[in-house]
Each structure stands twice: as C-alpha cells, then as structure tokens.
Amino acid sequence: MTNSKIIMLLAAMFVAASVQAKENAADNYKTYCVQCHGMQGNGKGVNIRDMSVQPRDHTDAKAMSTRSDADLFKVIKEGGLSIDKSVLMPPWGDTLSDDEIHDMAQHLRTLCKCKFGS
Amino acid sequence: MRNIAQKLACHLALASSILVMSPVASAADGMAILQKDCVTCHNLKGPAPQTLQALWDRKGPDLFYAGNKYRREWLVEWLQKPQRIRPAGEFYGKHIKPGPKRDEIDATTLEKHVTLSKDDAVAVAAELMKLKPHDDLIAKEKIVPGTISKQMGEMVFDKFQGCMACHLIEPDYGGLSGPEVYTAGKRLQPAFIASYIRSPQAWDPLIWMPNKHVNDANIQKIVNYLELLSQGGQK
C-alpha cells in the first residue's frame, strides 16, 4: 500500500469516527421534540405554559395535512421563521442530520396518520 | 534542657508538616469527595454522551469542563446550599408525565443534591476549576463589558430568539426543560455563556438545546442581560 493510500484510509476512518451514529426518529422525537410538542405529540409539552404561540399538535390530521413533506423538512431543519411561523420553533439542522430530519418528517406522518393534501 | 529541646523540635516539625501538608490535604480531599460522592451522577472525565441512550442515562450535568464553565465563588456557595437549577432534572424526559392541561414535572422522581460543608465545598470547587479541556472554545469568545436594559434584554431573549421557551427567566416564568437562567450570570463565566449559545453542540453534541445561529451582537446582549437578571436589576 502506498503512503497516499494509507493517508486516505486514515482520513476516511477519522471522518467515519467523527460522524454521530444515526438515531431513529422516535428516539429523536423523544429527546428533542417532546419538550414542547408533548409526550403524546399533541402540542402539550412541559414547556408550553408561558409561550405566546402554542406548538403544533402533531396528532391533528387536518392541520398537518396542509404541510408538504418539503415544508416539514424545512421547518425542522431551519426553524419556524423559515416558513413564516414562530421563532419558538428552533432550527434543528445542527443537531439532526438531513437523513434524520427526513425520517422525522415521516414519523410526523405516523403521528397525524395523514398525508399532504389528504 | 535536652527534653525541652527535643519537645520543641518535635512541635516545630509537627507545625511545619501541618503548614506544608494542609494545601495538599485540602486538594486531595476535594478529589476524594468528587470520586466518592459525585461520579455516580456527574461525568468528570468526558467525553459528553455520544448516543441518545447515554444522554438519557445522564443524571446530572457533565462536570469534566467545570473549570471552563462555572464561577468558583458560585460553586462554593451553591455546594453548601444547593437549589434546583434544572426544574425538570436531567434527563428532562425521565421526569415528566402527561397532565390534564399539559405535560408536568413528576417531582417524585427528582432527587435532592448532596450538601457539602464549607471546607469540602472549597476543596471540591478548587478541584473542579482545574477541569478545563475546552480552553480553545473559550479563547474564541471576546466579551465586551456592556449594559442592557431589562426590557431590551427580555425582548432579545424572549421575543427575538425564543429562549424562554425552555428556560425560566423568573422562578415562575418560562420553560422547564432547560436550566433556569435567572441565576446564570452568577453561576457561569461570561465566555462560557457566549460559547455555549454560539454552539451548544460544540460542548455537548446531542444536547436538546438547538443552535439558533445567534449573531455576535445578540450573544453579547444575552450575556449582558443574564448578568443583569442574576443581580435582580431593573436598569
């Protein structure tokens, strides 16, 4: 093996080691979303008493079906302001990977038992 | 005469050994207390949790960067008279339950922090202040002393950034999943506050505080606001 190949291999190992393992959407929801959206996903989290804007009820099929998967991805990654909603919904792009955010959008579909436009 | 000389020499030797030994003994006690009473709930060695399971299993804040984080005088005082800082404990998800209006804190699951004597608190604080693996992150912050009105500070913290969603700014106003911030100015070093707001994930990769990309000017304002808040000021 040439020196350059060894260096590339070491670099690849370093990158792999520094990337967080992907967590499943239910566990990410339990960790990051429950604090505001609630243990039951109904928008009744432990933090909400003094909030000027109440968090979305993820079990509300009617409201959730007005959001496209692309909107859900954007609001999770970039926060409420990115889709003209509340600053109280923060951006999670530095916490979750794009893959995890896609999984989360699908997890929300299971909570609302709904699809976009239905 | 010889007896007196011997006794005197003996006393001097004892006295000098006490003088020499006392700072060492105190430092050793601090580490001994940490190892005996603190490690079951606090991580003293790092790294921060790398999986959600490890995050959920955490029982108290990581202390392996305590020297980069806390103010020594606050530690000494708090360890003698601990008051809850995280209303929903750590990990918050383990201390909440569904309630009639919203999820509630399940106080029966929260444990009291141990209380130390003054001597032990001084020794433990001295040991904790040595733990500084993140001097690099602290060095990136430049804190400019300044003031802010309480009203403007609250605007930034509450309305513009939305931080009160998770943090209490008064004992009975704000969110519960993060630590209260009305004593943060007394508790934390200003550069730590700035660095942690800039990137919570740089300190604790999986923490449930998001990176809101707060700009430098607003970070300064929040640092000044928290300072004011901890003084109970109305400027």
Structural features, described:
The complex is a heterodimer of chains A (118) and B (235). By secondary structure, chain A is mainly α. Chain A is built from five helices and no strands. Chain B has 235 residues and is mainly alpha-helical. Chain B is built from eleven helices and four strands; from the N terminus they run H-H-H-H-E-E-H-H-H-E-E-H-H-H-H. Chain B has helices spanning 2-38, 52-57, 66-69, 72-80, 118-128, 135-139, 150-160, 184-187, 190-198, 200-203, 216-230, and strands spanning 96-97, 104-105, 168-170, 173-174. Chain B is globular, with a radius of gyration of 22 Å. Chain A binds chain B through residues 20-21, 23, 27-28, 30-32, 34-36, 38-40, 44-52, 79, 86-88, 90-95, and chain B through 50-52, 55-56, 88, 92-93, 96-98, 101-105, 159-162, 164-166, 173-177, 199, 201, 205-206, 208, 210-213.
CATH domain class of the largest domain in chain B:
Mainly Alpha
How would you state the average pLDDT of chain B, rounded? 90
| Content-based structural category of chain B | mainly alpha
For CATH, the homologous superfamily of chain A is named as Cytochrome c-like domain
| Total beta-strand segments of chain A | 0
Task: Please give the number of β-strands of chain B.
Answer: 4
